[in-house]
């Protein structure tokens, strides 16, 4: 009789792990955004791009880390216009990897959206 109970426990852990590792599903999310945008945050930010995501890794308790250079928040002429929102997400698989390696490896998923490009000003010739 003990065998079916173990099987149920293992199945429950497997289902929980699968639920938390699905792309886009995060167990922990930190959302950083610009306040005071058009009509305040309640009306929602008005980003210029869709969400882009990348998984970053840190090794040896942060001594070696993978940084994220953002290259899509600029115009064709190289003019930069900033990041509107950032999300940092951690799921069960990432947490387990960090715990099982005692912090030697710590992955995290980062997402960002760019602000709207600046409105051209000046006079037309």
What strand order characterises the main sheet?
1-4-5-2-3
Q: What is the number of independent domains?
A: 1
Topology, number of strands: 5
Q: How confident is the prediction overall: mean pLDDT?
A: 79
Q: How does this structure look, described?
A:
The chain is of the alpha+beta class and 125 residues long. The protein has one domain. Helices cover 23% and strands 27% of the residues. The protein contains 2 helices and 5 strands; from the N terminus they run αββββαβ. Strands 1-4-5-2-3 form a 5-stranded antiparallel beta sheet, covered by helices on one side. β2 and β3 form a beta hairpin. It is elongated, with a radius of gyration of 21 Å. The relative contact order is 0.23. The mean pLDDT is 79.
List the helices and strands and how they pair.
Blueprint: H1 2-21, E1 28-33, E2 52-59, E3 64-65, E4 83-90, H2 92-100, E5 105-114
Antiparallel strand pairs: 1-4, 2-3, 2-5, 4-5
Entry summary:
The chain has 125 residues and is an alpha+beta fold.
List its salient traits.
about 25% helix, single chain, about 120 residues, 2 helices, alpha+beta, 5 strands, elongated
């Amino acid at each position: 009789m003990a065998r079916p109970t173990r099987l149920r426990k293992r199945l429950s852990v497997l289902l929980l792990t699968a639920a938390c590792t699905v792309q886009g599903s995060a167990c922990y999310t930190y959302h950083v955004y610009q306040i005071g945008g058009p009509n305040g945050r309640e009306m929602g930010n008005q980003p210029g791009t869709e969400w882009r995501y990348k998984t970053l890794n840190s090794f040896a308790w942060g001594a070696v880390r993978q940084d994220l250079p953002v290259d899509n928040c600029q115009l064709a002429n190289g003019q930069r216009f900033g990041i509107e929102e950032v999300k940092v997400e951690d799921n069960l698989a990432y947490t387990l990897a960090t715990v099982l390696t005692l912090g030697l490896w710590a992955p995290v998923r980062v997402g960002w959206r760019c602000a709207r490009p600046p409105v051209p000003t000046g006079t037309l010739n």
